Amino acid sequence: MHARVKCEGCHTDITEIPHKPAKKVDCLVECHIVEPSSEKKFSHKDVETFLATSVHGRLDNEGKEKKYVEDYPNCKNCHDNPLYRPLSFFKKVRPGISEASLGRCRVCHKKEEFVFQFYNHVTTRLHKSRNPLNIAEMCGRCHDDPALVARHELSTKAVFSYGETFHGKAASFLDERVPDCLDCHVNKGESVHQMISHKDPKASTHDNNRGKICATIDCHPSASAKFASYGVHAEFSLVQSPAQYFFTVFFIILTGCTLLPLMGIIFLDIVRRFFPHAEMGRRK
Ligand code: HEC
Ligand code: HEC
Ligand code: HEC
Ligand code: HEC
Ligand code: HEC
Q1: Which residue is closest in CA terms to ligand 4's atom 41?
Q2: Out of 26, 27, 223, 245, which could bridge 227 as a Cys pair, Cβ 3.0 to 4.6 Å?
Q3: pLDDT value at position 128?
Q4: 8 Å CB contact between 56 and 49
């Protein structure tokens, strides 16, 4: 991602070699690259403003620090290295990255480097850079931390409960078609840095809007609003989701009561087949 940024672009305090112990990198510094549409020096400052107004922002409406402010994510909490997929991923021919369309660029643009740089610049952003499991794992560092969940009065260990659903199960088998956290929690056209609480009427997950998440063309196009009322974050817990709890308990009992006797009968049948003359006790 940062191949074109020089070391000093981020490590701004390093001016000589050998250098003194380096300061922490500030992701919001202006670097020497110019953003071509505005011709201003490039920086990620806008992301900070997005983040500030999101549920992950550190300040409340009055500009005061929120309670337990150290629980809120900063850039480096979410954007650590292992999160990016191996570079080879980008080299793979996937929808949107194809030799055939590269051939088109070459018709007019003569420099291979130019073609690759700009082609990749756009196409890598036309699909997600991480699979649903990777994303869930990232969020899970905080959202599955029982202490954090309790401190912020959230109702669920969100990643755990996601893992209990069909979506989450498929994600754990590396399925990429299922929705990840961002598909549901980010309003279309906004960035992931603008997620808001489901209690906010503007949130994609607010009761009034959540039907639209399910009913997208890629997911369940004919879904009704009611379809979306199922508990996406239902845990197997009597307190959090009693209906699901009793439903699951019922099926555990039903399965047990059906299968255990059946297995007993099969076992007896096998015994009879292998030992046709076996007897319990002595026949009179
Ligand atoms: C896009 C910004 C960026 C660029 C460009 C960059 N780094 Fe870093 N570097 C970081 C971040 C972020 C860290 C993590 C530590 C931190 O938060 O300061 C880091 C950490 C390091 C560390 C480990 C420091 C430690 O305390 O463990 C070294 C060494 C390092 N970088 C060297 C380089 C060198 C050499 C280059 C140029 C080839 C370079 N970096 C380019 C952002 C960058
Ligand atoms: C809550 C976790 C989270 C935090 C905090 C966060 N990001 Fe992100 N950011 C993401 C995710 C996830 C994506 C990628 C979305 C995708 O791949 O679909 C992303 C995408 C980006 C992108 C676009 C990358 C691209 O090539 O398309 C930039 C730039 C970015 N973040 C910068 C920042 C900066 C700067 C900060 C700190 C001010 C920050 N992010 C804080 C989760 C986070
Ligand atoms: C039919 C010829 C043609 C094809 C095919 C073509 N381009 Fe271009 N491209 C041009 C021309 C001519 C310009 C300059 C247009 C202008 O400045 O308005 C241009 C401009 C660009 C620019 C802007 C450069 C700048 O510095 O402003 C980029 C980036 C670019 N093309 C990338 C691509 C990519 C990637 C492909 C393949 C997907 C592609 N082009 C296919 C003819 C083409
Ligand atoms: C299928 C859509 C969907 C997916 C996928 C999804 N969520 Fe949710 N999430 C929702 C909806 C809708 C709500 C609103 C409350 C509810 O119904 O539980 C919600 C609520 C939440 C809450 C607030 C819980 C509370 O009650 O305080 C958090 C935190 C959360 N989600 C995080 C995540 C994380 C992290 C992931 C990824 C592992 C994720 N969500 C995946 C739809 C989704
Ligand atoms: C560094 C920790 C951290 C990380 C990483 C993190 N979050 Fe959060 N998130 C929080 C905290 C703290 C809150 C509680 C905000 C509050 O108290 O209102 C929160 C709140 C939320 C909410 C709002 C819950 C509600 O009330 O409806 C959603 C949705 C959410 N996070 C989704 C995500 C997703 C998706 C990811 C991964 C891309 C993620 N978070 C990563 C710390 C984190």
Answers
A1: 181
A2: 223
A3: 77
A4: no
